[in-house]
Give the backbone structure.
Amino acid sequence: MIFGFTPFTFVHVLLSLIGIFSGFIVMFGLLTAKPLDGWTALFLATTVLTSVTGFLFPYHGFLPSHAIGIISLVLLAVAIFARYGRHLAGPWRRTYVITAMISLYLNVFVLIVQLFRKVPALNSMAPTQSEPPFKITQLVVLAIFVVLTVMTAIKFHEDTVRTV
């Protein structure tokens, strides 16, 4: 056990947190028109691995987390293709930004779900995750991500991109 987690769960959580942290750095880079190639590769790789490892937990049946994992992997495939296959040319630049930021949002969405499940103070406010504190938190985070995604799509275009 590592911090109360099985080794597999620890690796999954660590990948998720690295993906979220590096994703916010990538978002900052997009907002300042800097591609941040190394951070981008780290974000995409750890976010893909987070989704893939999520399918390896011993659950029976199809769960909402599986749906989020599938959606995330499809979005990440498009983001990776736009970034590395199409080199952000033309409409692929905006496609990359939008799919990468939605993938980051989905990772944060799952983080909030897990926090409300595992942190006693949050769980006591929303034990079934259908209570207002949970719904309001998710709605506020969604609204912030919508605004930030629109801003990144506007700021990260060919005329302003600066290499680092």
Remarks:
- The CA atoms of residues 27 and 152 lie 7 Å apart.
